[in-house]
Structure formats: structure tokens, C-alpha cells
Amino acid sequence: MSIFGRKKEDGSPEMGVAVAATRDPEVAMPAFRPAGAAPLAAAGAAPMGPPPKPPGAAPVGPAALPGGAAGRTLAPKPLPEERRTLVVGRGISLQGTVSDAERLVVEGTVESQMIHAAELSVAQTGVFRGEVQVEDAEIAGLFDGTITAKGNLVIRATGKVNGVAKYRHLSVEGGGQIMGRMEMLAEGGAPPEQGG
Question: Is the pLDDT of residue 47 over 70?
Fold first, then answer.
């Protein structure tokens, strides 16, 4: 009978009938031992160990490490410094305060009173309303409020800034818009002195 309840007609053995397995003598695998059988060593067979090494092979393992590193563990290579990044995805709205984010990426909507970060990126689908102080900013969406960029303020062709923009270096692509007040920061990060 097969597993589907039909009688086999091709002469193959039925389920439950043991078939002697033939082994390739060149394969270095121990024979199958049913549960409860005596261990191979007790049966007179030598236990299997690692395969023999060819003559002239280099040593492998901790003893082979240069500089006598046997017994020591090698420290992993340090990863490049990663920035703490907050991504507000498309369709997500965030209101409140953000702290300890080095990089803020806005693809959705953010409304905040004050955010301090190293970098701000407002994507084409992003909207930021509020006040932010950053080192560098890139605006490709809508920014409505006060932005202070102590380094570079880049407004892409699809970007629009409404309100106050304070910056040290300004770059506006063709099509980018700034509506409101602009202030250039002096090298110390403060607005330049007005002579009078």
C-alpha cells in the first residue's frame, strides 16, 4: 500500500518493510546506529576524528596567528560612527519635542516648538512647522517657521521656506522659494552687527 491507500503494483516494497542500504566504502561516514545500539568504540571500530592533514600543510588555529596571538581574542573592527537619526515617514504626523536626534528626516509632518539637531532634511513630501536650530539643513518640501542653520541652508527646487531663515551659507536651486525674513549669520553663529 502507498501512503494514499492504493496498492502498489510496480513491485516496490510496501511501507514498513526494511530495505538494506548499500554504503559506498570510500565515504568516511559511520554506519547508522539505531537507538540503544552499542557505541562504535565498544563494537571494535575506531572512533572518527578529524581528517589527516596533508604533508606540508600550514597549521590552523590560534597557534598559527602572527605575533603569538594564541589565547587572545581579536577585537572586531570598529564600525563608522553612526548618527542618531529620526525619520518621520510619509503619512506620519509628529507633534512635540524631539531631543537627542542628531539627524531629523521629515517625509511626513512635524510640528514642534524647538528642535536642536545637527542636520535637518525635509523631503519633497515633508512639512515642518515650528522652530529648529541645526548645523545644516536641506529643504525640498515645506518649512513654515524659524530655521537657524549655523552652516549650510540648501533650498531645493521643490522647497519652500515661509517665516524666518537664519543661515551662514545659503544655496537656493531654481524654483526654490523663500518668503519672509532672511538673516545671514556671522562666523560666530550670531547675526552680523548693524553699523549705524
Answer: no
Return the C-alpha cell found at 32.
547508522
- Domain span including residue 99: 85-184
pTM: 0.55
Q: Is residue 146 part of a domain?
A: yes
Domain count, the chain: 1
Instruction: Write the secondary structure of 80-131 as one string of H (helix), E (strand) and C (coil).
Output: CCCCCEEEECCCCEEECCCCCCCEEEECCEEEEEEEECCEEEECCCCEEEEE
Choose from 31-35, 62-66, 154-158 the range with maximum mean pLDDT: 154-158
pLDDT score of 196 = 44
- DSSP run (H or E) holding 177: strand 177-184
The DSSP-derived string for 47-80 is PP-SPPPPTTPPP-SGGGSTTS-TT-PPPPPPPP
